[in-house]
Amino acid sequence: MHKQNEFQNLSSDVVENIRSTLPARVDRRRGAELITEKFFPISARTLEVWPVTWRHVNGRATCDTHELLAVAKEKLEAAPAIAGGKKRSCRGILISDQTQ
After folding, report:
1. What is the chain's pLDDT, residue by residue, as a tens digit (100 residues)?
2. Within a domain: residue 45?
3. How far apart (Å, rounded) are the C-alpha atoms in residues 55 and 94?
4. What residues contact residue 59 under an 8 Å CB cut-off, 6+ apart?
5. Those residues with Cβ within 8 angstroms of residue 65's Cβ, 6 or more apart along the chain or in another chain
6. pLDDT at 20
7. What pLDDT shows up at residue 92?
8. Per the domain annotation, does 21 fall within a domain?
9. Is the pTM of this model over 0.70?
10. What's the chain look like in SS3?
11. 31 and 47 in contact (C-beta within 8 Å)?
């Protein structure tokens, strides 16, 4: 089970305190580590196609940390909630076992 978004239920002062401890800019590898830690698992390769402004400095692509985390938060909030487990009818019989 993945961590829930830790920013979601915190006051704005606490969120700003957490954000102030993060680096201003990150590369894809570090960005993927932050998103995996704060939101959901992701690879650095996936970040290549995200709608984030990347700047190439000294041969490394970097982006604004707050922009990257904002996109991650938007993606998490837009993701549908899906219940797991076997589908059952109201009587507890497996739907796939019912005959017509």
Report:
1. 444 445 555 456 655 666 778 899 999 999 999 999 888 999 999 999 999 999 999 999 999 999 999 999 899 889 998 888 776 666 666 666 555 5
2. yes
3. 53
4. none
5. 19, 22, 23, 24, 25, 26, 31, 34
6. 76
7. 62
8. yes
9. no
10. CCCCCCCCCCCHHHHHHHHHCCCCEEEHHHHHHHHHHHCCCCCCCHHHHCCCCCEEECCEEEEEHHHHHHHHHHHHHHCCCCCCCCCECCCCCEHHHCCC
11. yes
Q: How many domains does the chain have?
A: 1
φ and ψ of 29, to 5 deg: -65, -50
Flag whether 2 is in a domain: no
Give residue 59's identity as a one-letter amino acid code: G
pLDDT value at residue 3: 44
Range of the domain at 66: 12-78
Phi first, then psi, for residue 62 (nearest 5°) are -130, 155
Residue with tokens 């019989």: 93
In a domain, 24, yes or no: yes
